[in-house]
Amino acid sequence: MDVLIKIKDREGVIHELQAPTDMAMNIMELCKAYELPVEGTCGGMAMCASCQCYVLNDVALPEMGDEEEAMLSEAFYVKSNSRLGCQIPITEDLEGLELELAPEY
């Protein structure tokens, strides 16, 4: 089953992406699959913040882990709604999620 996720890129363009829930992907990998400008330098280990995004609507996300929290405490352009895309697995619960990519460093 796929879920619909909307992602606003750094130019303000909104992309409506079909995200598969059966491939163990995360938001960072989804962005890369659709060729959105997300680095993912650390390969999804919550060590670089190059996949930082802002959550724009009220969709239940998994709790933020210690590694993600620590990385965001050191990252640039962090807001109260910041998350690392690599730490958000794609599940059916994400249907309708709206995100915005954080600025590049």
TrEMBL record:
GO molecular function terms noted in the UniProt entry:
2 iron, 2 sulfur cluster binding; electron transfer activity; metal ion binding
Gene Ontology BP terms? P450-containing electron transport chain
Q: Which residues are in coiled coils?
A: none
This protein's UniProt keywords: 2Fe-2S, Iron, Iron-sulfur, Metal-binding
Please name the InterPro entries in this protein's record. Answer: 2Fe-2S_ferredoxin-like_sf, Adrenodoxin-like, Beta-grasp_dom_sf
The answer to whether keyword Plastid applies is no
What is the name of this protein? Answer: Ferredoxin
